[in-house]
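User: I've been trying to design a sequence by hand for this structure and keep getting stuck. Would you show me what you'd pick, starting by listing the structure so we're on the same page?

Assistant: Good idea, let's start from the same input. This is the structure you sent:
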């Protein structure tokens, strides 16, 4: 898919207003594993509806642990989490929380549309509605002509689009993405970054949490960047990216972009 200008409904704001409700609230959260390793410690973070927040930091700093805590896949050793107005497990079971992994994790024996319909099937949604919703999100990610293809027939970028479509099919209020573009080549990566902003821009209430090792990616995508320290993981700084949307490829060549990249890199070094 060629690069195109993003048209989003987020184009008139810098950051969600102070009146926006808080969807993610972490208070003095700590996670200690049975072997005694402190994965994260004293993490305090509030994320409002409609934000796009990226987490950057060295390997092993607890970025993925925070995601597992938010989704209720693991429990904190201390502290309090409130996700989508309730506890993490309730948020996960509500169907309003979706997760995209670094690997597409598609079922190899199922075609594209069956992979995308899976979350709706697990929720007991009628088959005709499953198909309608799957076709809607496949068009959104540019794969409407590939619904009968098997994963092995797709490129890495196309597999990731399927994974993103599967996460969007439930109309999530909170979308968590754990290094989804890390294994892709740079051209495909930048194309999917732009397409992700376009998708996010169509739903001003959708909140995205995004883990990446790539500072340039974080600055391009985000309203805020949470910079984490090495183990035990803490949030060293929460950096605003006060650049309006839409953002096209030219944003990467601006002085504002370079200044924010420098600030994030500086926080990482400290």
């Amino acid at each position: 898919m060629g690069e195109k200008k993003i048209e989003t409904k987020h184009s008139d704001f810098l950051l969600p207003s102070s009146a926006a409700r808080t969807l993610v609230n972490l208070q003095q959260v700590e996670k200690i594993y049975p072997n005694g390793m402190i994965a994260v410690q004293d993490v305090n973070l509030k994320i409002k509806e409609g934000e796009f927040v990226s987490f950057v930091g060295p390997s092993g700093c607890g970025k993925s642990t925070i995601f597992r805590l938010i989704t209720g896949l693991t429990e904190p050793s201390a502290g309090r989490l409130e996700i989508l107005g309730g506890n993490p497990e309730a948020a996960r079971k509500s169907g309003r929380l979706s997760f995209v992994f670094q690997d597409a994790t598609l079922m190899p024996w199922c075609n594209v549309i069956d992979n995308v319909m899976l979350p709706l099937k697990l929720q007991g949604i009628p088959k005709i509605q499953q198909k309608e919703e799957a076709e809607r999100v496949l068009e959104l990610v540019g794969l409407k002509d590939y619904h009968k293809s098997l994963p092995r027939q797709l490129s890495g970028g196309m597999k990731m689009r399927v994974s993103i479509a599967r996460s969007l099919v439930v109309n999530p209020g909170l979308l968590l993405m754990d290094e989804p573009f890390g294994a892709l080549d740079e051209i495909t990566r930048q194309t999917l970054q732009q397409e992700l902003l376009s998708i996010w821009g169509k739903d001003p209430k959708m909140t995205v949490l995004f883990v990446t090792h790539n500072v340039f990616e974080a600055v391009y995508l985000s309203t805020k960047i949470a910079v984490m320290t090495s183990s035990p993981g803490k949030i060293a700084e929460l950096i605003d990216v006060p650049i309006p949307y839409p953002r096209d490829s030219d944003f990467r060549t601006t002085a504002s972009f370079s200044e924010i990249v420098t600030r994030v890199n500086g926080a990482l070094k400290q």
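That's my pick for every position. To get oriented when you compare it with your attempt: Residues 31 and 76 are 5 Å apart (CA to CA). The chain is about 35% helix and 20% strand.
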